[in-house]
């Protein structure tokens, strides 16, 4: 009976071996039945996948000088050539995974038959995959199907069909690549746990060295990990990792690459990995650190908006040279922190800087009092405070720039013309509540507005109005220019993203929209409220606003009315060093040059005595020609200052990012806090202006004091 069973078993093994051999030799001897045909269906595509899908690489983000600031990746990998890998590493891997690597041609016949016999006869389960076959499988799992769970499962399924496909691709590879290339290819794609892939990254992360310097014990540890990197992790499972490393050393002895005496001595050595986990860079913009993280985040957001996918960005191995000026960014952050401490609860102070120009508007700095990072208890945040619209409140009277420009564009109002500026005004064009004008008739339908300070002559030039910022004057101008023209001007000059995704009403700004803030009974008496975008309060800047876009408004004005996207990209190259074009929006002449230049002259008095930013300018001894405009929202809950010289434009904003409702108290530099609505005293001429002047005075130190452009008589007028 036993003899008969043995004969049947041997017959079965012979048939199995025949199928395997026939299937593997298919390219030479023809089809081998259904299983081999199934394998044949996809072998060519699998081969091309290996050739056409490059492995994921780390994308490097640098400053404008080319100095790295961050790395973006899904797989931490450092490409390594065959001559950059130590012999100890190579022989450790070969000894444990494929002892006859240099003898076979992609498939180890002896190993395949031995494994088949052992597995079928009930002996120890054995693998038969060569390093070439493992290279195929690892490439499919870690490269071709890295985001395809089903594809990964198919690349690992325990079927003869899958093994045949894998073997046939391996044979093809052996005709196209040398043994050294295959070995290095395997060591470049294999996983070593914790997002670490390839021996180059593993050498650095595990031992703080390079792959050419890996020792026998180091190579043995890494070679022992490849069959189960999670289970053999030396930090989580040091005992198992040690056991596996020593097993590799024994295999090196069997392969005559190490003496028994040396192996026993090396087994007594510690694992030698770096303490506290692998040394690898952060995989996202957190790696840019607290100072440059906001800029890095804007780079990522900008490229995604231009059509790049996150997968491509994080796996493409690009080098992105940005427009970041480290010194300017440092001074901007320093100034923001001097005004508001990073640990101040519910207070964000930001500064965004953009370089004017008629062909590009390069972003120079994006800074905040808060650090960029994931640890809120340390004053960190990953919200894009200096550049995004979300988590930001209004910019206040800085929006009066758009009303002034729209009025000037009609040709009926010039920068030197006299306009009305009463202490209070009730608009019959815009509807709203009677408050805060209690003396008008109850239930009067109209939008009532008063100035932030009492008194006033009742009239002044438009230039003086931009300097002193009376609310009534600009609501009157808003009536004259028309709301649509004012809203359009805001977009033209630079608030593109802000106006397209206004966070106050959940959608684009609609000049004709009616606010629903009052109840139905209140609306019957008072009409719709005015405190919403598109209503009379638009010129008072109640809408959430991007600080970066506000800075770009100043850059557009200083560029003769030419708008360009605020770009953070200097140059981008692929993994081979070839330039990568970025599909950015083209620059455009947003408003006539004469209008922009005359508006700049109109905004040139804010830093002088009588201007809303005069005290902040005087505090740093400012003596350069500039444009500027402050802004403050209702209940002093947020404030802004935008300004520019011919060399550099910027906007500073202070706001409540976490709980927006309420006020801000300014008790001087370093003494700013969130307070109840009735306790606020914040104005654009305080924290924001001090932040702007504090940074700009240092950034521009040593630069010439350039004059502002000359005004155009067509937009000056004299009544």
From TrEMBL:
Keywords: Carboxypeptidase, Glycosyltransferase, Hydrolase, Multifunctional enzyme, Protease, Transferase
Region (Disordered): 502-533
Domain Penicillin-binding protein transpeptidase: 361-638
Residue span(s) of domain Glycosyl transferase family: 66-252
Bias kind Polar residues: ranges: 516-533
Catalytic activity: [GlcNAc-(1->4)-Mur2Ac(oyl-L-Ala-gamma-D-Glu-L-Lys-D-Ala-D-Ala)](n)-di-trans,octa-cis-undecaprenyl diphosphate + beta-D-GlcNAc-(1->4)-Mur2Ac(oyl-L-Ala-gamma-D-Glu-L-Lys-D-Ala-D-Ala)-di-trans,octa-cis-undecaprenyl diphosphate = [GlcNAc-(1->4)-Mur2Ac(oyl-L-Ala-gamma-D-Glu-L-Lys-D-Ala-D-Ala)](n+1)-di-trans,octa-cis-undecaprenyl diphosphate + di-trans,octa-cis-undecaprenyl diphosphate + H(+); Preferential cleavage: (Ac)2-L-Lys-D-Ala-|-D-Ala. Also transpeptidation of peptidyl-alanyl moieties that are N-acyl substituents of D-alanine
UniProt cross-references to InterPro entries, sorted A to Z: Beta-lactam/transpept-like, Glyco_trans_51, Glycosyltr_51/Transpeptidase, Lysozyme-like_dom_sf, PBP_transglycosylase, PCN-bd_Tpept
Name of the molecule in the record: Penicillin-binding protein
Species name: Prauserella endophytica
């Amino acid at each position: 009976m036993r003899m008969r069973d043995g004969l049947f078993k041997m017959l079965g093994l012979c048939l199995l071996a025949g199928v395997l051999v026939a299937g593997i030799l298919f390219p030479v001897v023809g089809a081998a039945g259904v299983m081999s045909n199934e394998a044949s269906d996809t072998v060519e595509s699998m081969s091309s996948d290996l050739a056409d899908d490059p492995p994921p690489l780390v994308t490097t983000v640098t400053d404008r000088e080319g100095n790295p600031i961050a790395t973006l990746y899904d797989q931490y990998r450092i490409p390594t050539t065959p001559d950059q890998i130590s012999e100890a590493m190579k022989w450790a891997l070969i000894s444990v995974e494929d002892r006859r690597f240099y003898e076979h041609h992609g498939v180890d016949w002896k190993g395949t038959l031995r494994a088949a016999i052992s597995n079928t006869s009930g002996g120890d389960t054995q693998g038969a995959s060569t390093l070439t076959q493992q290279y195929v499988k690892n490439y499919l799992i870690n490269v071709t199907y890295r985001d395809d769970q089903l594809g990964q499962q198919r690349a690992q399924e325990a079927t003869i069909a899958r093994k045949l496909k894998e073997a046939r691709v391996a044979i093809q590879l052996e005709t196209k690549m040398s043994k050294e290339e295959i070995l290095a290819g395997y060591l470049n794609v294999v996983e070593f746990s914790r997002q670490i892939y390839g021996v180059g990254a593993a050498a650095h992360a595990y031992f703080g060295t390079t792959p050419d310097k890996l020792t026998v014990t180091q190579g043995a540890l890494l070679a022992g990990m490849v069959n189960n990197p999670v289970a053999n992790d030396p930090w989580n499972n040091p005992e198992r990792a040690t056991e596996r490393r020593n097993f590799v050393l024994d295999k090196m002895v069997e392969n005559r690459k190490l003496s028994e005496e040396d192996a026993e001595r090396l087994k007594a050595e510690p694992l030698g990995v770096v303490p506290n986990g692998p040394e690898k860079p952060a995989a996202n913009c957190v790696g840019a650190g607290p100072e440059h993280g906001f800029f890095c985040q804007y780079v990522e957001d900008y490229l995604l908006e231009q059509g790049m996918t996150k997968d491509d960005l994080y796996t493409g191995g690009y080098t992105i040279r940005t427009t970041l000026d480290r010194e300017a960014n440092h001074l901007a952050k320093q100034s923001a922190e001097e005004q508001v401490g990073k640990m101040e609860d519910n207070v964000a102070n930001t500064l965004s800087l953009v370089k004017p120009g008629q062909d590009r508007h390069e972003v120079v700095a994006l800074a905040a009092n808060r650090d960029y990072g994931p640890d809120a208890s340390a004053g960190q945040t990953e919200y894009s405070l200096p550049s995004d619209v979300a988590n930001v409140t209004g910019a206040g009277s800085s929006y009066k720039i758009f009303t002034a420009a729209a009025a000037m564009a009609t040709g009926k109002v010039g920068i030197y013309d006299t306009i009305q500026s009463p202490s209070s005004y009730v608009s019959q064009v815009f509807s709203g509540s009677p408050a805060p004008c209690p003396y008008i008739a109850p239930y009067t339908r109209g939008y009532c507005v008063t100035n932030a300070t009492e008194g006033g002559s009742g009239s002044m030039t438009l230039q003086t109005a931009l300097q002193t910022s009376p609310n009534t004057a600009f609501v009157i101008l808003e009536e004259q220019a028309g709301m649509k023209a004012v809203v359009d001007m805001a977009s033209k000059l630079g608030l593109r993203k802000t106006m397209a995704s206004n966070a106050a009403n959940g959608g684009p700004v609609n000049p004709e929209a009616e606010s629903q803030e009052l109840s139905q009974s209140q609306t019957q008496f008072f009409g719709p409220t005015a405190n919403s975008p598109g209503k009379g309060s638009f010129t008072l800047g109640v809408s959430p606003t991007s600080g970066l876009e506000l800075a770009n408004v100043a850059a557009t004005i200083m560029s003769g009315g030419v708008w360009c996207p605020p770009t953070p990209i200097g140059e981008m190259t692929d993994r081979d060093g070839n330039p990568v074009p970025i599909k950015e929006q083209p620059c455009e002449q947003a408003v006539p040059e004469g209008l922009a230049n005359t508006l700049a002259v109109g905004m040139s008095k804010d830093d002088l005595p009588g201007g809303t930013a005069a005290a902040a300018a005087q505090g740093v001894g400012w003596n350069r020609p500039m444009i500027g405009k402050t802004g403050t929202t209702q209940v002093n809950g947020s404030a802004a200052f935008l300004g520019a010289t011919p060399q550099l434009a910027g906007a500073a904003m202070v706001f409540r990012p976490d709980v927006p409702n309420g006020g801000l108290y300014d008790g001087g530099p370093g003494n700013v806090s969130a307070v109840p609505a009735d306790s606020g005293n914040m104005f654009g001429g305080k924290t924001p202006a001090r932040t702007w002047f504090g940074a700009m005075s240092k950034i521009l130190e040593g630069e010439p004091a350039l004059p502002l452009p000359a005004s155009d008589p067509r937009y000056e007028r004299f009544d």
